[in-house]
Amino acid sequence: MSENKTTGQQLSEELYYNTSNVWNKISDEESNQISSFSEDYKKFLDSSKTEREFVKEAEKLAKARGFVSIENIINSNTALKQGMKVYRVLKNKAIALAVIGSKPLEQGINLVGAHIDSPRLDLKPNPVYESRDMVFLKTHYYGGIKKYQWVTIPLSMHGIIIKKDGSSVEVVIGEDENDTVFTITDLLPHLAAGQMQKKMSEGITGEGLNILSGSIPYNDEKVKEKVKLNILKILNEKYGIVEEDFLSAEIEMVPAFKAKDVGFDKSMVGAYGQDDRVCAYTSLRSILDLENIERTAVCILTDKEEIGSMGNTGAQSSFLENFIADICALSLSKYTDIVLRRCIINSKMLSADVGAAIDPNYENVYDKLNSPFIGKGIVLVKYTGARGKSGSSDANAEFMGAVRKLFNDNSIVWQTGELGKVDEGGGGTVAQFMANMGMEVIDCGVAVLSMHSPFEVTSKADIYMAYKAYKTFLEKMK
Ligand code: MN
Ligand code: MN
User: What pLDDT is recorded for position 1?
Assistant: First the structure.
């Protein structure tokens, strides 16, 4: 109908930057793919509420798709050849996967990387106490949470306990329909006059996040803390643990509810831990589906992002570099340090982490020209940071341009995004740590509503577009 358009209309179509809604851009076939992909995603979320569970599920999927442990390749002294698929699990909390391409490693590899830890409540090392014939577990929250969101919801318990004899026991309580759950109490409104006058950051305190865990006393007049004794007896019978075993444990309390469709049109997914499992799952799926690629592809899924990517399972660790070094060593007849360096410096990466979607209930903290919307595709974030981009690696315009072209050429619906208005706050991702290694990196992820809350919301269209974007990048980035 262009003959009906004025020259001004034509010119504006040519010159203006416009975002598109994914739902208007897709075929019926893609619409079916979106729903089947999100069903897989929801199932995966329900079985992967912690970094350890994510790694376990990811390893299962990888093995089923022909990936073999790189440790097996090392031990059997075989060489890595084009088309081979390998993975490494690091301390049960991080996983890296690779598909070997046809091009020399010196020319670089294509990577996607996401984090698989999420904000939650960790049990303190010595958590159990009794008060007023009730037993509670003390917690220390992990990552950035709004504490008031974590009271009066059902919580499940996930983790691992290393016992005195060195054996370990895994715990998952609260996920099966008939399981018991846990919760943190809050004050009734009738008596909350004082609490309600406090600032939101102080209405619920960190030391107040104590998990209600039992109320039946052990029937013996001679013992103190009868309810605590009864709870420890139950735990001892079920898991063979004593109180001291909590000191060598990692127990995470997370929302007990399952991933759900949201809205009359079921267009969105509501679930705990979508930061960053929405990007981690789509990254994982993208590498699982790769065949016959030129540049070697790597997917790296790390822990501890929510507390700064610290530690030997975080993105600041040597995990990625060592994994690439092993790939180089197993692929080349003669491994040298310079090959590894060249490989890294010529590599290109999408740092797959979520963006803060514009929330119409709180529009004033977002710059509407530069913040992402749900349903408008994958978000390319040139820089993150706070107070003048501080802490951001700020992707190079040339690389941003190359990714933009790749996405446009391959019908990836994408948008740009900053984390809210300047000086409103800020944040960072793992991009900076990989950028320090010398590779090109840009943040690229799914826009999320209610980020870091117990029930985060994403668009199914964006989830599918993320998968498509990561797969295209791994396959086709030159
Ligand atoms: Mn994140
Ligand atoms: Mn986060």
Answer: 52
Whether residues 160 and 81 share a domain: the answer is no
Tens of pLDDT, residue by residue over 269-298, are 999 999 999 999 999 999 999 999 999 999
For residue 245, what are its two tokens?
A: 């075993």
- Identify whether residues 295 and 427 lie together within a single domain: yes
- Record the pTM: 0.97
Chain Cα centroid distance, residue 241: 31
Same domain, 37 and 83: yes
What's the 429 CA to ligand 1 centre distance in angstroms?
A: 6
User: What pLDDT digit, counting tens, does each position of 389-443 carry?
Assistant: 998 999 999 999 999 999 999 999 999 998 889 988 888 899 999 999 999 999 9
Residue 2: its pLDDT value, please?
Answer: 52
Of 255, 285, 303, which residue sits at a domain end?
255
Judged by its nearest atom, the ligand closest to the C-alpha of residue 276 is 1
How far is ligand 2, taken at its centre, from the CA of residue 229, in Å? 38
Q: From ligand 2's centre to the CA of 27, what distance in Å?
A: 32
Residue type, 125: P
**Is-cis flag, bond preceding 276, omega within 30?**
yes
What contacts 210, CB < 8 A, 6 or more positions away?
136, 137, 138, 139, 184
Count of structural domains, the chain: 2
Rounded distance between C-alpha atoms, residue 216 and residue 226, angstroms: 8
Nearest ligand to residue 452 Cα: 2
Say yes or no: 227 and 331 in one domain.
Answer: no
Q: What CATH number did the domain enclosing 224 receive? A: 2.30.250.10
Residue 298 domain flag: yes
pLDDT at 223 exceeding the cut of 90: yes
- 331 Cα–ligand 2 center, Å: 36
State which residues form the domain around 395: 7-118+272-476
CA of 452 to the centre of ligand 2 (A): 6
